[in-house]
From TrEMBL:
Name of the molecule in the record: Transferase hexapeptide repeat containing protein
Pfam families: Hexapep
Domain of life (superkingdom): Bacteria
GO molecular function, a single term: acyltransferase activity
Keywords: Acyltransferase, Repeat, Transferase
Organism expressing this protein natively: Syntrophobacter fumaroxidans (strain DSM 10017 / MPOB)
PANTHER family: ACETYLTRANSFERASE, ACYL-[ACYL-CARRIER-PROTEIN]--UDP-N-ACETYLGLUCOSAMINE O-ACYLTRANSFERASE
Amino acid sequence: MSFLSISDDVRLGKDVKLSKFINLYGCQIGDNTKIGAFVEVQKNARIGRNCKISSHSFICEGVIIEDDVFIGHGVTFVNDTYPRATNSDGGLQTESDWKVEYTLVKRGASIGSGATILANVTIGENAIVGAGSVVTRDVPPGAITAGNPSRFMRLIEDEQ
């Protein structure tokens, strides 16, 4: 028993490390990336090379994660600004009732455990998002942000 759920349309790079109890379908994962236990990566999500995706994280459709990114435990991405269960006719929504909204996490960024990243956000190169933050707007490159909603704290270069 493998405890892995990986559909045939998943594109795995070279030397990808997969933990048990993961769910991958229709996504792309780059070389040398590590995926922790209980992670789900949905269709049309892309994860770059040399990333670490910690356990219990949810990476939904429309999320693009560039190379060398760290995702802490229990990070959740959102791809719908106004999610609804039903459409205007009262039936359950299907894929035809909504449009995917995209999120970009640029190279070298780090997202702390328990953070929630809302749709239509770009997290800049080498930025750091604090644990438990709720990111509602773009994070500049090299910035440290934290809180709910996540707010700019300082630039990483200020510490060096």
